[in-house]
Amino acid sequence: MADPELYPADAYHEHASLAVTERPLARAGLMFVAFAFLAIFLLLPLVVVFEQAFSRGIGAFLEAINEHDTIAAIKLTLLVAVISVPLNLVFGVAAAWAIAKFEFKGKAFLTTLIDLPFSVSPVISGLVYVLLFGASSLLGPWLKMHGIVILFAVPGIVLATVFVTFPFVARELIPLMQEQGTGDEEAALSLGANGWQTFWHVTLPNIKWGLLYGVLLCNARAMGEFGAVSVVSGHIRGMTNTMPLHVEILYNEYNAVGAFAVASVLAGLALVTLVLKTLLELRYGAEIAATRGH
Amino acid sequence: MTTAPAKAGWRFRQPSVIPGFGLTLGFSLAYLTLIILIPLSGLVWRSASLGWTDFWAIATDRRTVKALEISFGTAFIAAAVNVVFGTIVAWVLVRYRFPGRRVIDAMVDLPFALPTAVAGIALTTLYSPKGWMGSLLAPLGIKVAYTPLGIVIALIFIGLPFVVRTVQPIIEEIDKEVEEAAATLGANRFQTIFRVLFPGLAPAVITGFALAFARGVGEYGSVIFIAGNLPYISEIAPLLIVIRLEEYDYAAATAIATIMLALSFLMLLIINLIQSRTRKRYG
Amino acid sequence: MEVRVSNVRKEFDRFPALRDVSLDIKSGELIALLGPSGSGKTTLLRLIAGLERPTRGTIFFGDEDASNRTIQERNVGFVFQHYALFRHMTVADNIGFGLKVRPSAKRPTRAEIRRRASELLDLVQLSGLEKRYPAQLSGGQRQRVALARAMAIEPRVLLLDEPFGALDAQVRRELRRWLREIHDATGHTTIFVTHDQEEALELADRVVVMSQGRIEQIGTADEVYDTPNSPFVYGFIGESSSLPVKVEDGQVWIADRPIGLAAPELTDGEATLYFRPHDIELLDECNGCIAGTVAASRRVAGTRRVELEIGGGRERVEIELPVGHPAAQKSRVAFRPKRWKVFPKVVE
């Protein structure tokens, strides 16, 4: 039997008291509305992706995936993620360290600036790099003279991806590290650890799940980004096409099976992300800052 | 060794024994400047160098105005729809216990995780006249794909998690005592919900609306497939930027982007003001 | 309004939070439900309010069976532990809420509601704060608004759940006195829950002492303090010392000696002696007394608390001595309780 001192309080929360529930009919109605809405707006699109991808059988699906340009797109997408995620990871940790562990003037402003890319249209995120490195920009002629190609090539795609995924790790870690305070670090320093040792042995273990969570979201966006990448990529098949861009090209060529085959790979990736994300939230909810919402 | 007496007055940073401030802040600022600030200020600088007359001509061009109207209008409608249904979804997820609740809860984040282009082609297939939804709606005379209604559908998909995830924690925090208090004072369930609970949720709902709206205004990938992209009818502002870029009309692209940014910031500013006012009052 | 709780049992997930509780409350009484956490006092209050439904038993308001009335119909004023004020409403709107949600036939006019609200604000001494929001009030002020809001619906019973629990000591004492005044002025039947015995004893007409889902004792402050009817009440209310004793031939014995206390009504056997540490007489000679050596001594305000080892150190008991008493470490002290009670040992 449970501890009689504690049990009634627990029981009280389990049993919604009479005053705080809807009538069964109202409950059923609300649940129906919610489920119907989610089914139509979330579930159906997801189902359609897989249904279309396999509409001509698994053979057609595999053929579409195995196509040369598709494989090139998958490789490019992975490459872009492999470069941009670590960059934003390092930035996220550094920014969170500076913001969460210290008090300085302009901190709130800096935090706002980090969130800036979230409020900018992806197309504009791409546009700013076109304006910066394009032929008509100040840098353009100089870049051309030195044979440096950024736009309509991999560097441009990476830059645009870094821009749109910029805040993910930082905004996950900042509230988490702020909540954890500086006590552990001060203790480690007082015991003779140097700065790096303190970070590796004390701070990093404390934030690892939050960090992983941020990386997961950052990676999902990096692999799926469309608008920003579309503007800077130049859409050269097999060269500067990421998977989402390849989906567009195939779709516009009326190659539905091909488009949805590639799309289903991305959707599978999204599902894996959701599962991992949910597992992290369930198991390490307390160690992940509660910043669901982006 | 002496510690300097605490000086009153301006100080950039509070003293701390923790190392690494210079390194981490320096790196963060440099990275932020390179990746975000320089490119964004490049946009503003470009736009400023346009000159007032040119800028005004582009801004008042009928196609630009229409595209902006469509972007902001559809984003507004979609965010409003999400406010209603997102709040219901959040309520059901927090208050009711049913099998599969965790799965459904996790699924709400699908629009965050699913690449926008994938959502775009899926929605288009779904709502095209031959699609599952489209064929149901066609006999009713409702056309979704290749119309502004299609844009709204795509933006509902994109914006839903913003509303649910902002409102959900606030519903979780509702003090049951408050509901019980309303009941002891004689309020029926309907009165409790609409007079007591919803006003308390208002700030979160406004925030969710703002986030969904801001995202919707800038959304590109999920919209362009389903929109049909007819100038003056279903052409969104981000697409017009892309079109101008492809025409090498950098001036127009820059101007439209600047207007979009300015309008978005203005809206967010207004919503922030409303929020800080309600927060001040209700604590 | 009289309130009668008749053989009420309440289970949560089959765990009994209240076991067969009966209680009669007279109209206009101020009653305290006192007990440690988990004793069922809040559950009893919520049952009376209608926030919970009893598993068994009936609750009467006057002659009317209220058990099947919904909470809205019961017309009780409930003041919640954390006040549960509506944050987005002004003080006046909070107080007027119960009147505004009435069906239109019974709803007073807006002017009337406003008048009632400011009347009640006068009563709770917060005149002029109509336009404030709860966030702009102190804890004590919020408490008063919560009370005014509960009284606005002209409740048949006023129920308060730990009404002073969230306030600091100074405000607590003030509000306590003030609540008594309000009660005397308005005459509402009032029931409040508390775990603070001082609060219960000072404020209530009668105190209901509860433990583990049962009522241990019902009585005035004097009754529950001077003649506790169970070991629990002895231990819970006021300070008490206890010693294992034996009852033989109507006498109380410690080890092999009678200690000069007669207990003719008790049957022979193992028992426990309870007394208040300050309610003792010191004896010079011991023929029929409790004697022990001083094991520890500490100064508590105006008196000295001494721990005595009785019977070679197997038992320890605490008594109060005057500060000037010469008792030192290891010295021997003999005493006899003036007021005491012996409870037979409960057979487990």
UniProtKB/TrEMBL annotation, chain A:
Provide the topology term for how it sits in the membrane: Multi-pass membrane protein
Keyword Transmembrane helix among UniProt keywords: yes
Task: State the oligomer form and interacting partners.
Answer: The complex is composed of two ATP-binding proteins (CysA), two transmembrane proteins (CysT and CysW) and a solute-binding protein (CysP).
**Chief place of localization:** membrane
Summarizing the function annotation, the protein's role is: Part of the ABC transporter complex CysAWTP (TC 3.A.1.6.1) involved in sulfate/thiosulfate import. Probably responsible for the translocation of the substrate across the membrane.
Q: Which NCBIfam families match?
A: 3a0106s02, permease_CysW
Stated name of the protein: Sulfate transport system permease protein
* Regions that span the bilayer: 28-50, 71-100, 120-140, 147-170, 254-276
**Organism the protein comes from:** Aminobacter niigataensis
Entry-linked Gene3D superfamilies: MetI-like
UniProtKB/TrEMBL annotation, chain B:
Q: Which UniProt keywords apply?
A: Membrane, Sulfate transport, Transmembrane, Transmembrane helix, Transport
User: Chief subcellular site?
Assistant: membrane
What subunit structure does UniProt give? The complex is composed of two ATP-binding proteins (CysA), two transmembrane proteins (CysT and CysW) and a solute-binding protein (CysP).
Give the matching InterPro entries: CysT_permease (IPR011865), MetI-like (IPR000515), MetI-like_sf (IPR035906), Sulph_transpt2 (IPR005667)
Indicate what this protein is called per its UniProt record.
Sulfate transport system permease protein CysT
Source taxon at top rank: Bacteria
Q: What Pfam family is a match for this entry?
A: BPD_transp_1
Please explain the role this protein plays, according to its UniProt record: Part of the ABC transporter complex CysAWTP (TC 3.A.1.6.1) involved in sulfate/thiosulfate import. Probably responsible for the translocation of the substrate across the membrane.
Protein's organism: Aminobacter niigataensis
Q: Which residues form the ABC transmembrane type-1 domain?
A: 68-271
TrEMBL record, chain C:
Extract the Pfam families matched here: ABC_tran, TOBE_3
Q: Where is the ABC transporter domain?
A: 3-237
Q: Which domain of life is it from?
A: Bacteria
GO MF, any single term = ATP binding
User: Which keywords annotate this record?
Assistant: ATP-binding, Cell membrane, Membrane, Nucleotide-binding, Sulfate transport, Translocase, Transport
InterPro entries noted in UniProt: AAA+_ATPase, ABC_SmlMolc_Importer, ABC_transporter-like_ATP-bd, ABC_transporter-like_CS, Mo/tungstate-bd_C_term_dom, P-loop_NTPase, Sulph_transpt1, TOBE-like
> What family is reported?
Belongs to the ABC transporter superfamily.
Q: What is this protein called?
A: Sulfate transport system ATP-binding protein
